[in-house]
């Protein structure tokens, strides 16, 4: 991979769909991202990004890297439970350990072992991650369900302006223009290349495989993290981290320190299903999406599943 430097190029930009609807974003080294509310109390975006690249990593850190809506919350809770050898939920929200969403002073106060997470691209991540070979968990979700979930998220959440696009226009942005956090295809391909050309410790999985074989993956994650988790604990973690229980815990136990604002009835947790895209795409839209995906991902080693 290219050398990660401390130089950061940032500008505020506007993403526009084909109907003329605008969405405000901040462009970081060429990648548009959402503008998190109150994320940087003591620094500008540029200062924060430079600090992220220079941040000190601990030997027992682990970081979850994923495109938005791929299952980061799910894995974050699972890994915390494996590390704590319990099925107790974290009271903090996962954004408190999210590199792009939180002041680094907050992240620095977290007790070890930290479970960091990010939607950043490789070029934005801390240099010490690569120097110290920090353990990475990388999860990928099929692009159709990702597009649906990301559309619903952006349409329901106040992030310096709610997305006003129709789903039809959002698909066009997802395939041919740009959406917050950039091209799903380029992001997945960049990580695929990294995993296939480096000896960095990475645990790779897909959202669909985690849905289909959760106990198997939790056991494998325990080995990857070098935690002494019994089969009974792994099964209990799978149960505690079911979609319904995580959604309930998010409502009953989490402290939302970012002050995220949602449209009435909406939350971070929507359906958590594989194949919901079938309720959104027309036949014609699905065919175009498949054509683009087949061409873009023909050399990618990640095997995409659209149903179980």
Q: Choose one word for the global shape.
A: globular
**Secondary-structure element string:** EEEHEHHEHEHHHEHHHHH
Helix content: 40-55%
Radius of gyration: 19 Å
The largest pleated sheet is described as: 4 strands, parallel
Number of helices: 12
Compute the number of strand runs. Answer: 7
- Indicate the structural class: alpha/beta
Strand order of the largest sheet: 5-4-6-7
- Portion of residues in beta strands equals 5-15%
Mean pLDDT: 89
Low-confidence stretches: 1-5
Brief account:
The chain is an alpha/beta fold and 308 residues long. It has twelve helices and seven strands. It is globular, with a radius of gyration of 19 Å.
Entry keywords:
single chain; 308 residues; alpha/beta; four-stranded parallel beta sheet; three-stranded antiparallel beta sheet; 12 helices; 7 strands; 40% helix; disordered N terminus
Report on the structure:
It is a single chain. With 308 residues, this protein is an alpha/beta fold. The chain is 40% helix and 12% strand. It has twelve helices and seven strands. It has a four-stranded parallel β-sheet with strand order 5-4-6-7, sandwiched between helices. A three-stranded antiparallel β-sheet has the order 1-2-3, with no helix packed on it. Strand 1 (10-16) and strand 2 form a beta hairpin. Helix 2 (72-84) packs across helix 9 and helix 9 (214-225) crosses helix 10. Mean pLDDT is 89; it is low at 1-5.
